[in-house]
Design goal:
Blueprint lengths: L13 E3 L2 H9 L7 E3 L4 H11 L11 H13 L4 H16 L4 H13 L8 H13 L3 H13 L7 H13 L3 H13 L7 H13 L3 H13 L7 H13 L3 H13 L7 H13 L3 H13 L7 H12 L4 H13 L7 H12 L4 H13 L7 H13 L3 H13 L7 H13 L3 H9 L7
């Protein structure tokens, strides 16, 4: 479904202001790498851990294994081989001899990514993640789901992936809830269910998962799995944007631009649009390019339009590639530049974009920036038609009618005119009337 995105930045992050806060957040289940803190706090945390290692009574629900695990983690941050080997041995002992789930998951991370001077070994990583999963570690469940979904070293297994994803979600892991919501939205690996998608997005969003908040907002905006509610959509886009989520920022910009759940505000729309674009969100970069090209929200500026289009076009964003191609082809950026138009149409055509394929056909048909070649033109028109692009179908019909780049075949001409007409091409309707005697239907 449009606008719905899987998890991109894994797990919630939280900032600790004191040593006790750090230990408290860890004891409540936050993954150690997602507890941020000021660098000046690190030495105090290490001293506290050294002190706790000699005490029998520990604060905030910590165990001796927790203290050893955290000490190993901070030892590993020193980066030198001696410290990392020392940390690895502690984690190994905790994982194997103490059956400590966080250490088992840590060893999974080490072998999956080849860390701590260990050779990369996905199968060993899986074995440690499974042990951690067996000990109720939801993060291990989630990582197993990812491995079975996309790891190159093992055979993809969508059933195992969904199994572990559902297990992680059942245990409250927000990334898993968001991803399950995505799968139920698009119907990948599971039977499509917008209501289930909404349920999972809502659960993760309430816990502060920024991408789930943006996905939940989209459900409210479009009425997916719930009733349409523009005000709720705006509220959840705002929550997502506060966490600097680019999806939330972009759609919050659209809310302010179009008055969705809030009064229109061009200044705020532009502010959030630029925030999302600066984060590399391709839709936002394209949209900002459009704004500069058309003078919407900002003064007309061709150079700025090209700049924002190119940022996303270089990442393979078809809309921006087409916008650049059309700008150079039609001369809306200044003088026409068929070579640049050819480059960007070709880039979009490689992704089977029907419009780009059709324009390439026109360039070869008329010799714009290339040597005129009717056969190549027809081949591009046919590829465009295959993508159900009406103008491509119209041009295929025209080629069959006139014998341009292909043997004349008036019956096939009518067939493709009909295809174009079904997609709303008015000129195709007129052509069908003129060629009714060749209609075999």
């Amino acid at each position: 479904m449009k606008n719905i995105i899987k998890t991109t930045n894994h797990s919630l992050k939280i900032n600790a202001m004191t040593v006790d806060e750090y230990l408290y957040f860890f004891s409540t289940g936050f993954y150690v790498r997602n507890i941020t803190y000021d660098s000046s706090l690190q030495d105090n945390i290490i001293r506290k851990l050294n002190d706790l290692s000699n005490k029998s009574e520990l604060p905030v629900n910590l165990t001796k294994d927790d203290v050893r695990y955290l000490s190993a983690y901070f030892e590993s941050l020193k980066k030198d081989s001696s410290s990392q080997q020392k940390a690895f041995k502690v984690l190994q002992d905790l994982a194997i001899n103490e059956n400590y789930p966080l250490a088992q998951a840590a060893l999974g991370d080490i072998y999956l990514n080849g860390l701590f001077y260990q050779e990369k070994n996905t199968l060993v990583a899986i074995s440690f993640y499974k042990k951690s999963s067996h000990n109720h570690n939801s993060r291990a469940d989630y990582l197993l789901a990812q491995i079975y979904d996309s790891a190159k070293e093992v055979e993809p297994d969508c059933y195992k992936s969904i199994h572990y994803l559902k297990r992680a979600a059942k245990r409250g892991y927000e990334d898993a809830e968001n991803d399950l919501g995505y799968y139920y939205c698009v119907g990948d690996f599971v039977f499509q269910s917008f209501r289930k998608a909404f349920k999972y997005f809502y659960s993760a969003a309430k816990k502060g998962h920024a991408q789930a908040q943006a996905n939940l907002a989209s459900c409210y905006e479009l009425g997916t799995g719930t009733a349409k509610n523009p005000e709720e959509a705006f509220k959840w886009y705002s929550s997502s944007a506060k966490s600097l989520n680019a999806t939330g920022e972009y759609h919050l910009a659209l809310c302010y631009e179009n008055g969705i759940g809030v009064k229109k505000d061009d200044n705020l729309s532009l502010t959030y649009l630029k925030k999302a674009a600066d984060q590399g969100f391709l839709d936002a970069q394209f949209h900002l390019g459009q704004c500069y090209e058309k003078g919407i929200l900002v003064p007309f500026n061709v150079s700025s339009a090209i700049y924002w289009y190119q940022l996303s076009a270089n990442e393979g964003f078809i809309k921006s590639q087409s916008a650049l191609a059309l700008g150079y082809y039609k001369g809306s950026f200044g003088e026409k530049n068929y070579q640049k138009a050819l480059y960007w149409f070709t880039s979009a055509a490689k992704q089977n974009d029907g419009e780009a394929l059709d324009y390439l056909g026109q360039m070869y048909l008329y010799g714009f920036g290339v040597k005129k070649d009717n056969q190549i033109a027809f081949s591009y028109f046919l590829k465009s038609a295959t993508q159900k692009y009406s103008l491509g179908q119209y041009h295929v019909a025209s080629c069959y009618q006139d014998g341009t780049g292909v043997d004349q075949d008036l019956h096939k001409a009518v067939l493709y005119y009909k295809k174009a007409a079904r997609l709303g091409n008015v000129n195709a309707l007129d052509a069908i009337k003129r060629m009714s005697r060749y209609d075999e239907d």
